[in-house]
Amino acid sequence: MRTEDVLAAIATGLWRWDNASGTVTLDGEAARLLGLPAEPVVLPEVAVRSRFHPVDWNEINGIVTLAVAEDTLAEARLRIMDEDGRVLRTVRSRSKPLENRTADGRVDYELIGTIQEIAEPQPGTTAVHTPITGDWRRSREAFLLDAGRALAEARSTTEVLRVAASLSMPGFSPDGLAVFGVAGERLSLIGHHGHGPGDEGPFAEMRLDTDYPATEVVRTGRAIYLPSPEEYKRRFPATWPLAQRFGRASWAFLPLIVAGRTMGAWMAAFKHPVSFSPDERSVLTTVARMLAQALQRAGVAESERELTTGLQRSMMPQLGPEIPGMTIAARYVPTGGGLQVGGDWYDMIPLPSGRFALVIGDVQGHDVRAAGLMGQLRIAVRAYASEGHRPDAVLSRASRFLAGLCSSQESDAYGNGRGAAEADADFQSPRFATCLYVECDPQTGVLEVARAGHPDPAVRMTDGTVLMRPTSGGLPLGIVPDTDYPTTRFTLEPGETMMLCTDGLIETGGHDLDTGWARLRAVLESQPPGAGSPAPGHGEPGHAESARPGAGHLEKLADLLVQAVHGPSSHHTTGPLADRREDDIAVVLLWRESEDCGCGTPQHPSRPARRTMLTVAQAEPARIAGARQQIRELLHDWADAEQVDSAVLMVSEMVTNVLMHTDGDALLVAEAVGELGERRLRVEVADGSDELPHKRHPGEMASSGRGVLLMEMLADTWGVDPRGEGKSIWFELYERSKRPDS
User: Does the predicted model carry a pTM greater than 0.70?
Assistant: First the structure.
C-alpha cells in the first residue's frame, strides 16, 4: 500500500508551501480537507489563504517564525471556511520549516507537512477541550496584555522580578522562576522565585561553558524545552543532580534578547508535566521578550538614577560646622524631567570675617545644562564670598561670570557650523539665574541681604507671626553683566526663624505667588510659639536635640514645608491639581536661638513683641504698597479690622508725605506689644528733613493736606520727635477688645 493511500485512509493530507514562489501544493486529501475537489492541485497562496479563518491565518507567521528560531515543528490549529464564511471543519497542521537562501542573500522558507481533520466536542457532551482552543487563545491574549502592562510599569529590577514571579499563565503556571544575567564569561543569578533560602548557591556564579541549560541558551540564543525529568537527565547529565532535588517535572529555558544581543536567560519550572505545545512555547517566548525589554529599561533607569543621585550629591554641599547661637536646616527636592537634577542650589559659606553667608539660587531650566551651570555658578559665588567681598560685590561678580560663561558657549556653538548651531540652539541659548545672598553675624543677628530677582526671605517671629521681609534687589544674574545689587540690612531677633526658598516651593501645583505664599505661611504659623526651643529629649527621634534643642524642630519644619507642596495634602489646597513634580525645590531655614534657660521655659513669660522695619527709597515709590502689606501681616490677628484699616491708611499717608516733601528715604518701624486683646501698636516713620508737619485746612476739592487731620481722627495718640538729623513721626493704636478666652 502506498503512503498516500495510508494517509488518505486516516484523513491526513500532504501540503507544501513555497514562500519564494507564493504557491501551495496540495495532494488530493489535503485539497478535500480545504473544501476543494479531491485531486492534487497547485494553487497560489491567496487562494489557499481564503479557505482559512482570518484569525487562524494571522497566527501562522508567528508560529513559523518561532519554529525556525527553535528549530522545531510548526504546529497550528486551523478552521476551514466555505465561500459563505461558515466553518466546515477544524484541521491540525504539522510542518517543518526549511530555510532557503537565494543568491542575493534573501531568506525564504518552505513548509512541508500534513493536514489532519480533528473532531470538535459537541455542545452538551462531556468531552474535554484540548489546551489549544478559542477560549485558551482569548485567555492567552488577556494574560499577555496584563503581563505587558505590568512589566512596562515596573521601574526597577526588583519590581520586574516581582511582576515575573506573580505571572499566572493560562493553563500552565510555573512553580519556580529564575532570571540569569551575563557578566563577562560567567552566568549570574539576578533573581529567583519559588526556591528556599540558600537554594541559589550553585547557580549564583557559573561559567558559560558549564553543561547547564541556561548557559547553552546564552551561548546559542535558542530556547530549550525539557518536558520531562528523563529528557533533562539525558541532555544535561552533569547538572541534573542540581535540578533533581527541587522535584520539578518540566522546564523551559528561554533567551532574554534585546536588540539582537542575548543579555541573559529565563527559566520557568513546572511541578506538573508540560508538553510545550506551539501555543505554550509562543506564550513563553512572548513573555521572555517582554521580560528582557523590562529588565533592559529597569537597568537603564537604575543607572540613570545612580548617576543623577551621585551628581546631585556631589553638587549639593553639606551644611558646615555648627554655628554658636544659630541652627540651620535645608532641603533640596529635584525634578529635572525625570533626571533628578536641576538648577536649584543652596550653600553655606564661612567668611574670613568670622561671619557666614547663606546662598540660595535657581538657574533657568530643569535639564542637565541647568545643573551644569548651577555647579559652576555655585563654585564661583563661593570663591567670591571666600575672598571677603561684600554681598553686593559677590552678586555683581557672579552676574558677570554667568553672562560671560553663556556668551562663550554660544560662540563655540556657532563656531562649529550652522547645522551644529541650529541643533544645539536650545542647549547653548543664554541662561539667567536668580539668587539671594545673606551675610549673617551670629553674635548680633544682623543680616545683610543682596537679591538678584529671587523671592524675598520670610521671617517667623517668636510669637508665630510670619512676615515676608521686602528687600532691595536687582536683575537676575547673567542678564546684564554690570548690574548693581543694593543691600538691605535687618536683624534676626532671638527666637526668630528666617526662611529662604526658590520659587518651586511657592508656585508648584498651579499656585501663583500669593496663593503659594498663603500655603507656606499656614505651615510656618502652624508650629506653636517656642517650637524652636523645646526641652531636651522632647523632639523628633534621630536628631541630636540634647546638644542643640531647636535642631529637631527646625528639621521637622523643613519636612513640613516640602510635604505641603509634594505631600497628599497639597492636592487639596488652593490652586489647580497640577503636577507636584513640575519644578525643583530648595529651602533653607535659619533659627537664632532664644534666651532660654534650657528647660523649655523662657525667662520672660510675657508675649514677645512683633517688630518689622522697612526702608522706602525715593526711587522706589512702588514699595509703599509693600509697607501697607507689612502692616496688614503684622496685625493679621488684630481684633478690630477697622483699626487695621486705619493703621494701613496712616502708614500710607506718612510714607507718601516723606517721598513727596523731602529729598530722603522713609524708614518705617512698626512694633506690636502686649497680650492678645490688649496690645499696643506703635509705628514710626523717620526721614532726614527738619521740616515739621503742620495742620492744614484743605478745600473740598483739594487732593492733599489731610495727613495731620487723619492722624488726629484715627490714632489714639501721635506725635513728632525731632532727631539729630531729621525727625520721626509716630502714632499708636490700642487694641479695643479683651482676650478671646476672657
Answer: no
